[in-house]
Amino acid sequence: MSNIAGKAYAMNLITPIRGLLVPLNKAIFWAVGTPLLKLSLRGLLTLSMIHYARWVILRDKDFPHLSATQPRERLRYGYMIFMSNFNGSWEQYVDSFAAAIPSG
After folding, report:
1. With contact defined as beta carbons under 8 Å apart, do 75 and 60 qualify?
2. Which of 20, 35, 61, 85 is most buried, judged by most C-beta within 10 A?
3. Other CB atoms closer than 10 Å to residue 78's CB: what's the count?
4. Digit-coded pLDDT (tens) for 43-93
C-alpha cells in the first residue's frame, strides 16, 4: 500500500478484552489524559502523517437499548476499537509511532 496521490487510508481494529482488563484499560486511558502523563505523549503531535486516531472501549451495557421489548446484549467480552486515518504505508505508520514515543 503506497501512498501515490496523497490519499489517506483508514484502519480499524477490533480486539476482544476479557474480564478485568476492561476496567484496567479504561484506567490506563484515564491516566494518560492527566496532565502528568500527557506530557510523555507530546511526541505524537509531530506525526503529520496521522490525521486521526482514537481508541474506544465498549462493554455490553454501552450498546443501545431502544425499547423494553428489545433483548439486552450479553457479550462475553468487552471490545477495544482503534480507528485511524493516515498517509503512507503500514510500515511508515508503525515506524512513526516508534520514533515519536521511543519509551513505548
Report:
1. yes
2. 85
3. 21
4. 666 777 777 788 899 888 888 888 889 888 888 889 999 998 888 777 887
Residue 3 has pLDDT above 70, yes or no: no
What is the spatial distance between Cα 77 and Cα 57, in angstroms, rounded to a whole number?
Answer: 11
9 beta partners: 86
Angle CA(41)–CA(47)–CA(53) in degrees, nearest 5?
A: 75
pTM of structure: 0.70
Whether 63 contacts 70, CB under 8 Å: no
Q: Are 63 and 91 in contact (CB under 8 A)?
A: no
Going by C-beta distance under 8 Å and a sequence separation of 6 or more, which residues neighbour residue 37? 31
- Placement of cell 502523563 in the chain: 37
